[in-house]
Design goal:
Oligomer: single chain
Number of strands: 9
Distance between the termini: 17 Å
Strand content: 15-25%
Structural class: alpha/beta
Number of helices: 8
Bound molecules: NADP nicotinamide-adenine-dinucleotide phosphate
CATH architecture: 3-Layer(aba) Sandwich
Largest sheet: 9 strands, mixed
């Protein structure tokens, strides 16, 4: 065990995240989860994430989208947060263009019900090269599917439900090599249960209370997923943890 002393100052909090080599994923694409939790693990306050997010977390949250080829999110988060299209600074857009990427990454919404507002900004106020994707399954309602097809890019990934592996394969086939998963906890839990979370960037906010909703809700019966700590940053009272999936099994567990 070590104590942590404040180390060198990091002038650009995004820099350590930009430096991560995500070019060798375990599967077709690299999946980074980016979540914020209270000290008690809560993922929302009255159904919204905003009250949990401190100023340094908000700044990193906005900037992190620069790493993404696509920003993947569960439908409930889109509904509750009135999730909008991705915005990036002019500098970030320039850096992406210089790497041959579209200036902005598209959003990809995961939904079986397709109970989504097709007039929302996330569908209507997006550039032509970053149209919002709708990841759904064959069991989706036909009329809603037709609406989804008009509003965005439909991605079929499963029969009765969206299978995370099929969804990620389809995103990779569309050229998306780095998938940023911004939750919510239900969809993130599905990704974890499918062993497809390569990296978790978790902000710890100095708050307790909020909803009884942890940052990841793995489906019943799913095994444990193990991660290795790769970085710790702190600003004010917010801690930023970066973990990567453990390549080989072997977390020593005690009898606690
Ligand atoms: N702390 C954070 O960093 C953070 C981040 C994001 C969100 N949040 C909070 O989390 C809450 C929402 O999260 P949530 O866990 O309730 O919902 P969620 O994960 O955002 O979305 C769940 C929805 O995604 C779709 N979905 C998930 N798995 C699916 C599958 N295998 N196949 C087909 N569709 C699937 C379903 O949509 P349909 O119902 O349309 O079929 C399901 O209802 C909000 O309060 C939000 O503020 C917190």
């Amino acid at each position: 065990m070590h104590t942590l002393e404040p180390g060198i100052e990091v002038p650009d909090p995004l820099a350590p995240y930009l430096e991560v080599d995500r070019s060798q994923p375990r599967h077709e694409c690299w999946v980074t989860g980016h979540m914020v939790a209270g000290l008690d693990g809560t993922a929302a306050v009255d159904g919204r994430v905003g009250p949990l997010s401190t100023r340094p977390d908000q700044a990193l949250y906005r900037a992190m989208r620069e790493i993404a080829d696509v920003v993947m999110v569960g439908a409930e988060t889109v509904r509750r947060e009135r999730f909008g299209p991705v915005r990036l600074s002019d500098e970030a857009q320039g850096r992406r263009r210089s790497l041959g990427k579209p200036a902005l990454p598209p959003v990809a919404v995961v939904s079986r019900s397709l109970d989504l507002d097709w007039t929302a900004r996330v569908f209507t106020q997006v550039p032509a090269d970053a149209r919002t994707h709708v990841i759904t399954c064959a069991a989706a309602n036909g009329e809603r599917l037709a609406e989804a097809d008009r509003a965005g890019v439909v991605v079929m990934a499963g029969e009765e439900r969206v299978e995370p592996a099929a969804a990620l394969r389809a995103l990779a086939d569309l050229g998306h090599r780095v998938v940023l998963c911004e939750g919510g906890p239900t969809w993130l839990g599905e990704v974890v249960a499918a062993d497809r979370l390569d990296e978790l960037c978790l902000s710890l906010s100095p708050l307790m209370g909020g909803d009884p909703l942890p940052v990841s809700v793995t489906p019943p019966g799913a095994g444990m997923a193990a991660f290795e700590l790769r970085a710790i940053l702190a600003e004010d009272d917010t801690v930023f943890l970066r973990y990567e999936a453990r390549s080989a099994p072997g977390v020593e567990r005690g009898e606690r």
